[in-house]
Amino acid sequence: MVADEVRNLAARSAEAAQRASEFIQRSQEAVSQGSELVSRVTTALTSVDQESRKSDEFIRSIAAGTAEQAGAISAVTKAVSELASKAIQSNGRTNRDLVQPSR
């Protein structure tokens, strides 16, 4: 009877050891898969970061160009306004000169 119990205990121990071994194997596979996923996510996030930095540089370049163009447009607008003012003054003098002799 004791020998039967010892055999049963040994069989249950062997089964428990087998289950533990299978659990460890599955855990190692899960860890390996998790590590691969972490690596892929890290690569993807690095790529997103790099592209984001490129976009930021591009947007800053556009902003600088826009500011430069705005300054140039302002200078052109001022010059055209001054020319128009001078043309109006010149036309006014010309009209006065034409009107005065006839009086």
Q: In short, what is this structure?
A:
The protein is built from 1 helix and no strands. The protein has 103 residues and is an all-alpha fold.
H/E series, N to C? Answer: H
What count of domains describes the coordinates? 1
Q: How many individual helices?
A: 1
pLDDT averaged over residues: 92
By DSSP, the count of extended strands is 0
**CA-to-CA gap between the ends?**
148 Å
Q: Kindly provide the radius of gyration, computed on alpha-carbon positions and rounded to a whole number of angstroms.
A: 44 Å
- Flag low-confidence runs: none
Strand residue percentage: under 5%
Description:
It is built from 1 helix and no strands. It has one helix at residues 2-99. The radius of gyration is 44 Å and the shape is rod-shaped.
List the helices and strands and how they pair.
Elements: H1 2-99
Features:
103 residues; 95% helix; mainly alpha
